[in-house]
Amino acid sequence: MNQRELEKGLHLELSRQETYAGYLQLERLLSAQTPRSPQPDELLFIIQHQTSELWMKLMLHELDRAYDSIRQGELESSLKVFARVAHIQRMLFEQWAVLETMTPSEYLTFRDALGRSSGFQSYQYRALEFMLGNKDANALLPHRDLPEVHTWLHARLTQPSLYDEFLRYLSRQGYPVPADRVERDWSRPYEKSEGVMRVFQTVYQEPEKHWLAYDLAEKLIDVEERFQLWRFRHMKTVHRIIGHKPGTGGSSGVSFLQRALALTFFPELWDVRTELKTPESTP
Fold first, then answer.
1. What is the mean pLDDT of residues 116-145?
2. CA gap 165, 180 in Å, rounded
């Protein structure tokens, strides 16, 4: 018979709290999709964005762990965290392929149901940008009517970014990081520094002598590259589905998303590659 028998040891009499569904709160999770139109593709749109928010929640959780490790001077423990972040970012990137199965005409059947809602209003996305150094107090404006969210984001706006904490770590290790990069107004966007560039020239010119600093610098480059690829995929997905229509949140749409691609989180880590010298050959 093509059937698997249940094993005798399986727990079959369970209270609600003991079950898989209870542990994961599936009743709440699976009832959180409430389409506003009768169009079948709206469910895809909702689930795509809800799952993205869940992955962003996990990514923030992991980056906070990495942040704490760097602040405590434990760079080695942050490396495994960054490896996990890489897979989370891959999941976020690949999700756009599912949304791209929806045609422009299918999206238009329920687009009006979105009203003024927009991904720009995602406070977790904003927290990720603040963590990575893209600081802008104006980005808090859409959250003025949500006091708890506004307070949470403001705290992230005014604390050092991941890159700031890395530079502070390097300073504590004796690298000549300029004082105005060790203490500054953290709510302001990072501006690149010649002094920081010289530090990373030292690190990258002889990585074997500065391995921990070099390895973490490369992990940060990985995070930014994948983040930019995610942004690019988002922009192309929007372009593919709505062309150059304005966004539901009032933005210019594709043009608005394109401008985000010009932003750089860790400028010296990119620029140092241009400045590296070819090693002198040993006779």
1. 95
2. 13
Query: Which tens digits make up the pLDDT trace of 23-73?
Result: 899 999 999 999 999 999 999 999 999 999 999 999 999 999 999 999 999
Say if residue 197 is exposed, middle or buried (CB neighbours under 10 Å; 0-12, 13-18, 19+): middle
**Cα 40 to Cα 36, 53, 168, 231, 234, distances in angstroms:** 11, 21, 51, 27, 22
Average pLDDT over all residues of the chain: 94
Give which of 138, 139, 191, 135 is closest to 167, Cα–Cα. 191
Q: Give every CB contact of residue 227 below 8 A, 6+ residues apart in sequence.
A: 89, 128, 132, 265
Query: What number is the average pLDDT over the span 138-142?
Result: 95
Contact 268, 200 (CB under 8 A): yes
Structural tokens at position 228:
């930019």
Give the separation between CA 263 and CA 161, rounded to whole angstroms: 15
Contact 189, 216 (CB under 8 A): no
* 133 conformational bin, left if phi > 0, alpha if psi -120 to 50, beta if neither: left
177 near 196, Cβ under 8 Å?
yes
Inform me whether the pLDDT recorded for 282 exceeds 50.
no
Q: Does the reported pTM lie above 0.85?
A: yes
Burial class (CB in 10 A: 0-12, 13-18, 19+), 76: exposed
CA–CA dist 47, 90 (Å, integer): 17
Distance CA 131, CA 140 (A): 14
Beta carbons within 10 angstroms of residue 213's beta carbon: 21
249 in Cβ contact with 126 (< 8 Å): no
Whether 84 has a pLDDT exceeding 90, the answer reads: yes
Q: Which residue has the tokens 């700031």?
A: 164
Residues in the chain: 283
